[in-house]
Design a protein that fits this description.
The complex is a heterotrimer of chains A (about 325), B (about 250) and C (about 300). Chain A has 13 helices and 2 strands. With about 325 residues, chain A is mainly alpha-helical.
Chain lengths: ~325, ~250, ~300
């Protein structure tokens, strides 16, 4: 990644700097709200980064990615409820549960293509939603409150807003770095090749679905981490986080930012959530504007914001 | 047949009511360039697809290097040394030429479940890829994205990709489709060189090229083999002339 | 015993309702290759229009007829203004664009009608129970739904199988490029098909209004079921949608009816009543997953692509 002075890298640099310095701004200005807002944004950005891995690079249009937010969240919530408060147990369980779910769902779903794949991933996420709402012990539809945040034995205090923000930001940057390395690795090239021309990749000698599945599992695990963070952030988890419209939101964040670019999902998430937040301040009917906006973006926006920034250089 | 690298026996493939491959048997000897010709609709590409695994036959067997590959999926046949080029160019359009070839080399260089190291920086893969590119004359175009290559260059790249796997047998499906005169001549020369190193099964319409290159020719009509012999004999074969060559004089290239 | 008959009829009725919704969806998908998530919104609008017009005119029947017309018109306008630009685009683009429409419709309804739902009261002649078999009584309205749905299904079958337009529709479902080459006015055909789909969705929405619900977001839940049905039945296939819809309707209804009792044997009452609806919903998704794994093109695929 050579450093170039163009619109895209300037924006990325600004975003990274802005995110890193946000707590400073928050404490100076006394604006706590912006810190909680951006904690949420950073967590969703991690989820979007994971979805971009399978959508943008892998060509797998999954409409059930929000399921992992729920699985990660419920892992933390259920363990906390049952008296296991150590983060060293909760978070690995969240990751493992997400990986397992992704493995099973992926193995079944990847037998299909195109719109069938979209539908089956949607259906499996809905199944997860229904399972969660059917668990009376853990609150069912009402959700589960988490009374005590994950305990990391003094390593970090998640109850501190600032510390928790940096944990989330650290996870986000780690996630982006991981995706960067994966995408340029042997594995990543195969996955992108399979997206580009599956027949050719099979003819060369690659078992396409095996690579897709592994990619799917990695993305699901990463999103499970986001789920654990999200549940911690709100001290609460409910089935609604897995409702299919949430998966739609995630897809929008990825597409808006520009699929198949490293920082696209981050920018897309920021724009989407900030827009949602500011529109809802203006009017309670923000979806009235957001909806058609989405439609217009799909109709006229090629390659999302990242694509637009890339074109700025030449334009 | 004694030294048959590829042995096809009684192959049958139907699509609904249409019999695309009709009780087809043929052998390809190690080291030969075996051409397959026939009018449009004769089932040449269907046959090729069954050889390389994109399509599975209804009945019959295919043996490659003494192994039964009839039902083997495409990606497994590549590992056995069977490489293919496609009639309709099938490349990774958003990757560069060298990336396309390097991936083919990568497939035969251990496993690809490596998530960390930069694949484009692996010297032996890059070297192998450049070697294949230079072989087909695309050395200068290594870093060009496939979508920006000319049609002729893409056909040459198809060949390079097939070569990168260092195959025992090359199955080429109309490599000269859409090529101009100079490009065709270059391709013929290239195939003549390759002929000495690897067994080739060549499907082609360009009769000049076929008669110049082939050690043996199999003629396919409506999915059946109507003749399989050396070029000189095929040229004289009355049935073949009737079905395919017609009355046109076929120019000879010695 | 009587309860089983009643539940079976309920299952049939729900299945037929689902069929109406799924038929429109599968037609639009099969012919225009268009994934329309906003189909659920048209279902919702059918219910809202019916409630409003019935209240204005004081007549259930007039309200229903007006609502049907309004939904048809809405569908046509939507297609003409926005959706036709998405034909031929990636399915993902279509999913996202129509997803945006869902958000828009939900808020538009909230703006116009407020957040609380509406109701559609039945006229007295539709509330009397009917004796279908000696000793077995069934609500006349539910019977009406069954009759109307079957009639619409029969009409749909006749149109698709026996008329010229139907022939074009079937041809389009199996080979889209061909009908264009035949010189038919594709745009008009597409608009008609979309309008038909919208009317079917609206009909389903308004028919279930008196017995189920008229509220914001009602389209989303049932839309997924409709997608499950067309995936199971095979995209583009009306016959597949019919069979799959009946099947799914039965499973859902019978599941909801009997699961709580079954579960009460192994779980506590609260746990059972929370888990029961979840279980019957899950069964359907499980079924879809099985079909997709075993026969990815659906049970009765329309096209041999």
């Amino acid at each position: 990644m050579t450093a170039q002075l163009n619109a895209r890298s300037i924006v990325v640099a600004l975003v990274v700097a802005g995110l890193a310095l946000l707590p400073l701004y928050s404490s100076i200005s006394g604006n706590v709200f912006v810190l909680t807002l951006f904690t949420r944004i950073v967590i969703f950005a991690l989820a979007a980064v994971s979805l971009n891995l399978i959508m943008g690079y892998g060509g797998m249009m999954s409409f059930g990615h929000a399921a992992y937010l729920g699985i990660g969240g419920y892992a933390v919530g259920i363990l906390a409820f049952e008296g296991i408060g150590s983060g060293f147990i909760q978070w690995p369980v969240a990751l493992a549960a997400s990986a397992l779910f992704a493995l099973v769902i992926g193995a079944l779903s990847l037998r299909t293509r195109g719109v069938y794949f979209i539908m089956i991933t949607l259906a499996f996420a809905q199944m997860a939603y229904y399972v969660a709402s059917g668990l009376a012990r853990y609150g069912g539809d009402d959700g589960l409150t988490i009374y005590k945040r994950s305990d990391f034995a003094g390593l970090v205090n998640l109850s501190s807003r600032v510390q928790f923000y940096y944990v989330c930001l650290g996870c986000l940057f780690a996630g982006i770095y991981l995706v960067w390395r994966i995408v340029n690795s042997r594995f990543g090239l195969v996955v992108q090749g399979v997206r580009s021309n599956e027949q050719r990749m099979q003819a060369i000698g690659f078992h396409a679905n095996r690579y897709r599945l592994v990619c799917f599992v990695i993305a699901g695990t990463m999103c499970g981490l986001a789920g654990a963070l999200l549940a911690t952030n709100t001290d609460f988890v409910s089935p609604s986080i897995m409702y299919w419209t949430r998966s739609g939101d995630l897809m929008v964040m990825v597409i808006l930012g520009g699929m198949g670019s490293l920082f696209g999902p981050v920018i897309g998430t920021i724009v989407f959530l900030v827009l949602e937040e500011s529109l809802s301040q203006i009017t309670e009917f923000w979806a009235l504007i957001m909806g058609p906006l989405l439609l217009l973006i799909v109709l006229f926006g090629h390659g999302g914001i990242d694509g637009w920034l890339g074109r700025l250089r030449r334009g | 047949m004694a030294d048959a690298l590829l042995s096809v026996k009684n192959l049958c493939r139907r699509f609904g009511g249409i019999v695309a491959t009709d009780d087809l048997s043929l052998d390809v000897v190690r080291g030969e360039l075996h051409a397959i010709i026939g009018p449009n609709g004769a089932g040449k590409t269907t046959l090729i697809s069954q050889l390389t695994g994109q399509l599975l036959p209804n009945t019959g067997t295919i043996h490659f290097a003494d192994q039964d590959v009839t039902r083997l999926p495409a990606y497994r046949r590549s590992a056995l040394g069977l490489a293919r080029s496609f009639q309709i160019t099938s490349l990774l359009k958003d990757f560069s030429a060298i990336d396309n070839v390097a991936l083919a080399a990568q497939a035969h260089d251990g496993h690809s479940f490596r998530f960390w190291g930069k694949a484009r920086a692996e010297p032996h893969l890059r070297k192998a890829a450049m070697a294949a590119l230079e072989r087909v004359g695309l050395g200068q175009r290594a870093d060009t994205v496939v979508s920006e290559l000319s049609h002729g260059e893409q056909r040459e790249l198809e060949l390079a990709v097939a070569l990168a796997a260092k195959p025992q047998m090359l199955v080429l499906d109309e490599p000269m489709a859409g090529l101009g005169v100079t490009e065709s001549a270059r391709m013929v020369k290239l195939l003549q060189e390759l002929q000495r190193e690897v067994t080739i099964v060549l499907v082609e319409h360009d009769m000049d090229a076929v008669f110049a290159l082939a050690d043996r020719i199999t003629v396919l009509v409506y999915g059946r083999v109507i003749a399989c012999d050396v070029p000189a004999a095929i040229r004289q074969n009355a049935e073949v002339r009737r079905a395919y060559l017609g009355d046109q004089q076929v120019a000879t290239h010695g | 015993m009587l309860l089983v008959v009643e539940q079976l009829l309920n299952g049939l009725q729900f299945g037929l309702l689902l069929f109406l919704l799924a038929a429109g969806l599968t037609l639009v998908f099969g012919i225009m290759d268009f994934v329309n998530l906003a189909h659920g919104s048209l279902y919702m609008m059918g219910a809202y229009f019916a409630s409003t017009f019935a209240a204005w005119t004081g007549s259930f029947i007039v309200g229903v007829v007006l609502a049907l017309g309004a939904t048809l018109l809405l569908g046509v306008v939507l297609e003409f203004v926005a959706l036709r630009h998405l034909y031929g685009r990636d399915h993902l683009d279509q999913v996202l664009a129509t997803f945006g429409l869902i958000l828009f419709f939900n808020d538009a309804v909230r703006l116009i009608w407020g957040p609380a739902g509406l109701s559609l009261p039945l006229p007295s002649w539709l509330t009397v129970p009917v004796q279908i078999v000696p000793g077995v009584f069934y609500p006349s309205y539910r019977l009406a739904i069954i009759v109307v749905s079957l009639a619409v299904a029969a009409m749909l079958y006749l149109v698709v199988m026996r008329t010229r337009i139907g022939m074009l529709i079937r041809a389009g479902a199996s080979n889209r490029e061909m009908i264009g080459a035949l010189g038919i006015n594709i745009k008009l055909l597409f608009t008609l098909v979309f309008g038909l789909g919208a009317a079917l969705a609206g009909l389903a929405g308004l028919m279930q209004a008196p017995i189920l619900t008229v509220q914001i977001g009602m389209g989303e839940n049932i839309l997924i079921l409709a997608f499950v049905i067309i995936v199971i039945g095979g995209i583009g296939s009306i016959r597949g949608a019919f069979l799959a819809a009946i099947f799914v309707g039965m499973i859902d209804t019978l599941g909801r009816a009997y699961a709580p009792d079954l579960l009460r044997h192994i779980l506590s009452p609260t746990a059972a009543s929370t888990a029961a609806p979840a279980l019957s919903s899950m069964l359907i998704y499980l079924l879809m997953a099985i079909v997709l794994v075993v026969r990815p093109e659906g049970l009765f695929p329309a096209s041999k692509r």
